[in-house]
Structures are given as C-alpha cells and as structure tokens.
Amino acid sequence: MEMNNGGKEILLSVISPVLNEEFFLPLYLEAVAAYADEILLLDGGSQDNSLEIIENFQRKKEPVLRYWRLPQTGLPYSTEWNEGFRRNFLLSKARGRWVLALDVDEFLSDNFSKVFREMIIKDEQSLLIGFSLLCFWGDIFTVRLNVRKDPHWEGVIYRLFRREAAAYDTRGNHCLLLINNQYPAYIEDKRELREIILYHYHYALGSRIKSNDNRRQDLNCLDGQQKPNFSYRPDNYLIKTSRYRGDHPTTIKKYLKGRLL
Fold first, then answer.
1. Which of 43, 156, 185, 256 is an S-S bond match for 130, by CB 3.0 to 4.6 Å?
2. How confident is the model at residue 223 (pLDDT cuts 50, 70, 90)?
3. How would CATH label the architecture of 12-256?
C-alpha cells in the first residue's frame, strides 16, 4: 500500500500522454482533481501553452501532479510514435492500486467517484472495469455511432484497471491495453459499469481537430490545418450519427454555460 506525502493511501492514479492540449488541459485537470489521488502526464513536446498550464496546476498541493517530457518524433499515430512505450512509462510511475487511463479530451460522468469508491470496497476480484462510451461528432449535440467495420464509437470502453496486472502492447499504431498479457476481450475478471459514461470531446470542442491528428480521413482533413468537415462522407464506409439530448459532466457544463447552452 503506497501513501502520498500526507500519509493518505494512493488508491487511484490517472495517466495520460499530452501533446499540444492547451484547450482541454484546464478542464481536464479541474475534473480529474475531484477524484484522483495522483495525476501523471507525459508531454510529447508541446509547442503551445500546455506546459505552463501543467506547471501552474502542479503548484497546488492536492492532488499530486507529476509530469515528464519526452518529445515525439516521426509520423503521428504510427509505430514511430511509440505510444505503447509512453503509456507503459506512465504505468511504471503510477503508485495507485488502480489506474485510470483517461486522455485529456475525455471526461467521466459525475457519478464516477461515488460508484468507484463503492465498487472497490465490495470487489476484490475484478482486474478491469469498463464504462459506456459516448463520442461527440462536430458539436456537443451530435454523437457518432458505430457501424459495421467501424466499431470504435460507442459501446463499452475499458480504461480502469489494477496497476500490477496491466501493460500496453507496443506493436500497434494505437496501442492496446493488456491485462496479464491478454487483451480485454479474453479477460474473465472484469466488470462493466455502464452507469458511468466516458465522454469523448475531441471532435466537439476547441479546434475539433489537432495538427498532430492525421487519422481522420473521414473529415477530409489530413494535415490538421484545414477546418474539419463533419458532413464529409467517405466512399468506403458509413458514418452514422444521432442527436444527443443527454447530460454532460459538471466541468463541461460550467465551460459551456453562456456559450452554447
């Protein structure tokens, strides 16, 4: 059992790589600080105000924020970026009994802290926890739905796990989590907490695309410099969306107040 400097058990570590995230970082740190015992960030060579935001937050005492710098080279979202290595680096620094891998454009529903604390008291078996996934597409009123051959936009996403069981596969372009050297689909000791929602705002807030994001051929914007085209329809697969009338996490609602709502 590891303790922080105040003698409190480090129950939950939140980890994320960072690269040019000046828009999302203030919102993310505010949200995560409500439930994390420590926050661990690895900067990939940001050229915006990301480091200044991190260092300003780091001056606060709780929760503990630690960060490292390791500039990324090569083609974004390829094996040259060594994303698996970066996430494994953060795992090696984590001290929490549980680790939450939450990227800076992702936010959990407000019930996370309560449900998580209740779960760990009762559950000594689960190694991996999944949440409901909600991906916004173009704005906060539209969500993207998965379709055949494109299954990454809704359903259950596994991001919370026991630290000692976890590692990331370093072989892929967009690294996958391993639990005891197995992919989540093959893990029996896992749970789905569908009442907790993971909201992904990458394509709904801020620039809605980043200069380092070359994955989105379905936005007809390959270099990250043009404005993304959310009405574009690729020839080889379907993009399906739905109107969203649900809730948002408190941090996002505070940001949106007076802007869109």
1. 156
2. low
3. Alpha-Beta Complex (3.90)
pLDDT at 2: 66
Are residues 225 and 236 in contact, defined by beta-carbon separation less than 8 angstroms?
no
Neighbour count for residue 172 (Cβ, 10 Å): 12
Rounded CA separation 45/51 (Å): 9
Q: How confident is the model at residue 11 (pLDDT cuts 50, 70, 90)?
A: very high
CA nearest to 85, candidates 73, 95, 98 = 73
Q: What is the pLDDT of residue 159?
A: 97
Q: In what order do the strands lie in the sheet with 106-108?
A: 64-69, 38-43, 12-18, 98-101, 154-162, 128-135, 190-200, 106-108
pLDDT at 222 over 90: no
Stronger pLDDT, 236 or 113, i.e. the higher one: 113
Here the tokens at position 198 are 């993971």
CB 260 within 8 A of CB 136: no
What 8-state DSSP symbol labels residue 211? T
Which pLDDT band, with edges at 50, 70 and 90, does 224 fall under?
low
Rg of the chain on CA atoms, in Å? 18
For residue 231, give every residue at least 6 positions away whose Cβ sits within 8 Å of its Cβ, in sequence order, or none.
Answer: none
Q: What is the dihedral of CA 229, 233, 239, 245, to 10 degrees?
A: 40
- 50-58 and 24-32 helices cross at what angle (nearest 10)? 30
CB 12 within 8 A of CB 98: yes
